[in-house]
Amino acid sequence: MADPQEHPADLPECPFAEGSGLLPAELRAWMLVLAATGAVEQRLRSVVKEKLDVSHDEFLILCLLAEQPEGGLRMTRVAELLGRPKTRLTYQIACLQHAGLVTRRSVCGDKRGVEVTLTDKARRLLTEASGPLAETVTQSLARFMGPDQQEALRALVPDLAEDSRTESRTD
């Protein structure tokens, strides 16, 4: 079987892109978001592993922490934002801490609270990897979504340019 990433022009349009089925627009849009997210995650996993040597779930934690201007986030908030069980998060944070990418500390005044913060090493790695990671997201979306969906998404991902869509569909 051919690799669909190598011949995206041979792939049928996403079934949720047309809107001719039974689903109302809101459910169709949600299914399109889920399908696009799945396509991006699938392509991103290998790039994340290659560039950062972490799992995709660990990468999501790093991304959340990277968006904090100063300090970190409480582990309960990270679990909440990612929709992950706290026990699974504890394991992932331990892996990231072992790799030297995050630090943990008790929250002042709350003996049960734990705050997680990126290390300088993690900030450096994310900065170095951000270009290839962003390009992977852009290419994945361009390959998966049709012209109308790409137009709607440009408000969130401005680099999803016309020329990247054309190149991706003809690779």
TrEMBL record:
InterPro entries: HTH_MarR-typ (IPR000835), MarR/SlyA-like (IPR039422), WH-like_DNA-bd_sf (IPR036388), WH_DNA-bd_sf (IPR036390)
Gene3D superfamilies: Winged helix-like DNA-binding domain superfamily/Winged helix DNA-binding domain
Molecular functions (GO terms): DNA-binding transcription factor activity
Organism superkingdom: Bacteria
Domain (HTH marR-type): residue spans on this chain: 26-162
PROSITE patterns recorded: HTH_MARR_2 (PS50995)
Any GO BP: response to stress
PANTHER family with a match to the protein in the record: MARR FAMILY REGULATORY PROTEIN, TRANSCRIPTIONAL REGULATOR, MARR FAMILY
Protein name per Swiss-Prot or TrEMBL: HTH marR-type domain-containing protein
Lineage, opening ranks: Bacteria, Bacillati, Actinomycetota, Actinomycetes, Kitasatosporales
